[in-house]
Amino acid sequence: MGLVYKKFFGLRANPFSVSPDPRYLFLTRHAEEALACLMYGVESRKGFVLLTGEVGTGKTTLINKLLELLRPQQVATAFIFNPNLTVPQFLDYMMTDFGIPCESKSKSQILIRFYDWLLAHHRAGGNAVLIVDEAQNLSEELLEEIRLFTNVETSEQKLLQIVLSGQPELEQKIKQPQLRQLRQRVAVRARTYPLSAAETKIYVGQRLRIAGSNGEQIFDPESLEAIWRHSNGIPRVVNQICEHCLVSAFVDQQREVKVSMVDTVARDLDLDDGNSSPLMPPPASVAPDSKPGMIEMLKTSTQLTERLRDSESESPKKEKL
Question: Which domains does the chain have, with CATH numbers?
């Protein structure tokens, strides 16, 4: 069915897959700032970086984009996307993803091997990043183990950068008194937000364009407004609505999605009627002097935008992100 509807609408790929594909990263002002904060935290070797946001607002897509940007550099990465692990399981997963061989299963031997590797990698001019997704599910014991990783440092730099990504509950979790040492070490905080109505329209159009659309209107303006209302601007829900609308339009042999179809799909997906209170909107950008390091982050944001543009110009086959 999916292949047929893509042909029907002249698309090369599924534009609304819920997979966190960095090709489809939609850089709103706040998403760009969040990505700049992540890059700044890693490249400046700040130690702990916190990324939080509501479910479906693009955290994992940002993480995948971060990994893509770090790949050409001398940065070793480990990405743990299932944190429901015991401490031994976590250490084993981390070592494997970093590509660090260790025959011993002893915790002390694993840590010695890991710390020796970090020092050697640093002396060779490299950086190392540990990324943990869904970090709100980490146990307090595991969070404390992760905190202790940052004790390995030179007099000037952290040898391991740690990105904790999770839902807003993560922020509440690290406010617990027993985790105050970890909270004090968070040097950079980034956040994802829902899309505005205007951003939702651009978001849908961009994903269609990247998937091969020739620019012919598929969603009329009223349907896009309805998609935003029903989704509350959550990108993952926008994708779900749009995907079901394209399938329905294909079945009905309609080239354009109307608002009535969006309302029907929203009911089928058991979404609200568009009249409930939307999620808290994103704040205005923080003034450069109102947050430590913000000037550097804004510089990073500018450099990041230039880097993305350079990447596009070097790869003419890639669509604009």
Answer: 2-22+195-268 (1.10.8), 28-194 (3.40.50.300)
